[in-house]
């Protein structure tokens, strides 16, 4: 698999995965069809738009190559119609594991956009800049999810989920460090690290330290 093919595959996987998670969250928030589409598209392309703004790509690629937006819209409509059909027919078995579905698709989207962010950062810089690659990769991975959660009125996942943003950081670091060896392999391994860490964190309930009951020390 050459680099261009790898980037394309990861981008499509990320768009489908994040569009799914955005559409499901919108449906849970009882949004109408337009709301479902908007939230799915925002989740799918939001991280890439933030990445392009930081790297000075004007206009962002989401506006010059609307294929990703079209795919996200299609995913949103399919999910909306499937849920509406199941509701009408009284079928509840298809979506009774929504939390599991959202977790899987969110992890795939996070991994895919993390490594594509690293790839775009590499292409936009003249010299080697590890901090830039990791920062842009992480922001690309988590950006769409943050916009999704803010628009839906919930606490962003990167602040509350089990080792979420950290998984993106580590995956971006692996991808960046291996890039000079083999870029396609670096993307596969970097994405694999993100998915593996997310899976282990969920299974073993890994959490970063946090202050519990801050009101007991006068913080309200």
How do you describe this structure in short?
This protein has helices at 3-28, 33-55, 61-64, 67-89, 98-124, 130-152, 157-160, 165-178, 183-204.
3D structure, described in words:
- There is one protein chain.
- The chain is mostly helical and 220 residues long.
- Helix content is 75%, strand content 0%.
- The chain is built from nine helices and no strands.
- The termini are far apart.
Computed over alpha carbons, the radius of gyration is 18 Å
The average pLDDT score comes to 89
Element order, helices and strands?
Answer: HHHHHHHHH
> Tell me about the biggest sheet?
none
Tell me how many strands there are. Answer: 0
Fraction of residues in β-strands:
under 5%
The N- and C-terminal alpha carbons lie at a distance of: 54 Å
Structural class computed from helices and strand pairing: mainly alpha
Question: What are the segments in which pLDDT stays under 50 over at least 5 consecutive residues?
Answer: none
Shape: globular
Q: In oligomeric terms, what are we looking at?
A: single chain
Instruction: Figure out the total of helices.
Output: 9
Share of helix, binned: over 70%
Name some characteristics of this structure.
single chain, 220 residues, mainly alpha, 75% helix, globular
Question: How are the SSEs ordered, and which strands pair?
Answer:
Blueprint lengths: L2 H26 L4 H23 L5 H4 L2 H23 L8 H27 L5 H23 L4 H4 L4 H14 L4 H22 L16
Helix pairs in contact: 1-2, 1-4, 1-5, 1-6, 2-4, 2-5, 2-6, 5-6, 5-8, 5-9, 6-8, 8-9
């Amino acid at each position: 698999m050459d680099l261009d093919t790898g980037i394309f595959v990861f981008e499509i996987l990320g768009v489908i995965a994040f569009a799914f998670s955005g559409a499901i969250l919108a449906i849970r928030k009882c949004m109408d069809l337009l709301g479902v589409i908007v939230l799915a598209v925002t989740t799918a392309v939001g991280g890439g738009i933030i990445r392009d703004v930081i790297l000075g790509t004007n206009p962002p690629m989401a506006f010059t190559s609307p294929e990703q937006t079209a795919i996200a819209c299609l995913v949103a409509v399919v999910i909306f119609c499937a849920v509406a059909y199941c509701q009408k027919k009284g079928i509840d078995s298809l979506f009774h594991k929504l939390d599991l579905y959202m977790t899987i698709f969110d992890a795939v989207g996070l991994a895919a956009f993390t490594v594509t962010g690293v790839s775009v950062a590499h292409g936009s810089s003249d010299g080697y800049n590890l901090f830039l690659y990791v920062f842009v990769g992480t922001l690309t991975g988590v950006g769409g999810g943050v916009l999704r959660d803010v628009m839906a009125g919930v606490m962003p996942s990167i602040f509350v989920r089990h080792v979420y943003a950290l998984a993106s950081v580590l995956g971006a670091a692996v991808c960046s460090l291996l890039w000079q060896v083999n870029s396609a392999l670096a993307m596969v391994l970097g994405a694999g690290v993100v998915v593996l860490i997310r899976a282990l964190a969920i299974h073993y309930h890994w959490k970063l330290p946090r202050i519990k009951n801050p009101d007991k020390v006068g913080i309200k």
